[in-house]
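Tokens as discussed.
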């Protein structure tokens, strides 16, 4: 039996504090841009079936119980107690939490308390810049305050993350923009935005990326279909090849998030560049019962020391549970078969399982003694 007693969830978000009806629950279950088609339910997905398999027992119900029964039990317990039971039943011992999404979501400290686990903050670059812009009156003050805020964030966070691929696409020029280019872009953006406006200017996005690289903290880059509303042709992680090449040797690790359905491309880049790593979260959560097959495709290409477990969960504690269970089950099934066939030794299989589950993340993010 291949065991993974500790899991470091290297990328996730907080969970909703509010009670959830069917519509709200389904909206977070599949991350769609609207409700399900008339006469259908988003529980009829691989992720929905996985939720019904793994989550009901943690709330005192039988596996595969009907969605209505499950949600009724959730309401009966209350949002806080349900979240605690689910998070503590996931087996995740450390959460790295991207706190940059809007909404009534728990922060990393609440995740630590509710999940009886360690937790650390991941700072989203674009949100940091938007907050600075809201309180900066001039281009000069904006750029100075941005540098100061990013420096301060680096002192407490374990990583930076960027949604440049979501906002603009991954085909950004790989070199850092010059000072005049940055000032011009900042002036245009500040003049045209209202308070709370989002950042999508490609020059400023590049500026943020290179500021993060200079900090030395790991930099997570969103690719694949990890966010709703993306144009598929601009999220293939292979578009990051030039940026990966430009940042090689600078001492900053890059982590490719949400590579699915381009998980093989992400795995390839992790194999080519010593400082590039690949996240497993979305590739497994989206594929449910097919997770072992998808994991096998990733393991064909990436060195085992470059792969990191995550749930990629957002909003629903159920997704942390599903991410953890699907990972454990897929990895145990896959490596167990290879051991049974004589292709791997049991010792090597157990060692690789521990690396992907927690040890690689501890090394990349400097989490000595955690997970």
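Sequence:
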């Amino acid at each position: 039996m291949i065991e993974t007693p500790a899991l470091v969830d290297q990328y996730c978000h907080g969970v909703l504090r509010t009670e959830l009806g069917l519509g709200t629950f389904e909206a977070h279950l599949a991350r769609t841009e609207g409700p399900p088609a008339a006469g259908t339910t988003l529980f009829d997905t691989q992720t929905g079936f996985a939720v019904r398999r793994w989550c009901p027992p943690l709330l005192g119900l039988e596996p595969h119980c009907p969605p209505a029964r499950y949600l009724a039990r959730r309401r009966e317990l209350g949002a806080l107690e349900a979240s605690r039971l689910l998070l503590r039943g996931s087996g995740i011992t450390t959460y790295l939490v991207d706190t940059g999404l809007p909404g009534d979501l728990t922060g990393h400290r609440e995740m630590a308390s509710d999940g009886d686990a360690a937790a650390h903050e991941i700072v989203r670059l674009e949100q940091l810049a938007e907050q600075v812009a809201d309180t900066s009156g001039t281009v000069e003050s904006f750029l100075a305050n941005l540098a100061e805020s990013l420096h301060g964030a680096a002192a407490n966070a374990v990583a930076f993350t960027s949604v440049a691929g979501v906002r603009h696409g991954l085909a950004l020029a790989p070199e850092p923009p010059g000072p005049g280019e940055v000032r011009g872009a900042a002036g245009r953006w500040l003049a045209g935005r209202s308070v709370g406006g989002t950042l999508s200017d490609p020059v400023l996005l590049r500026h943020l990326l290179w500021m993060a690289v200079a900090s030395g903290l790991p930099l997570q880059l969103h690719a694949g279909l990890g966010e709703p509303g993306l144009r598929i042709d601009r999220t293939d992680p292979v578009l990051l090849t030039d940026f990966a090449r430009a940042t090689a040797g600078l001492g900053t690790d890059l982590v490719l998030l949400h590579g699915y359905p381009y998980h093989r491309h992400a795995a390839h880049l992790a194999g080519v560049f010593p400082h590039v790593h690949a996240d497993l979260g979305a590739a497994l959560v989206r594929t449910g019962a097919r997770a072992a097959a998808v994991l096998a495709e990733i393991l064909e290409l990436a060195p085992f020391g470059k792969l990191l477990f995550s749930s990629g969960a957002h909003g629903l504690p159920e997704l942390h549970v599903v991410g953890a269970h699907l990972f454990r089950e897929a990895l145990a099934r896959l490596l167990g078969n290879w051991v049974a066939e004589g292709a791997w030794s049991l010792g090597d299989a157990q060692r690789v399982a521990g690396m992907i589950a927690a040890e690689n993340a501890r090394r990349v993010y400097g989490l000595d003694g955690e997970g």
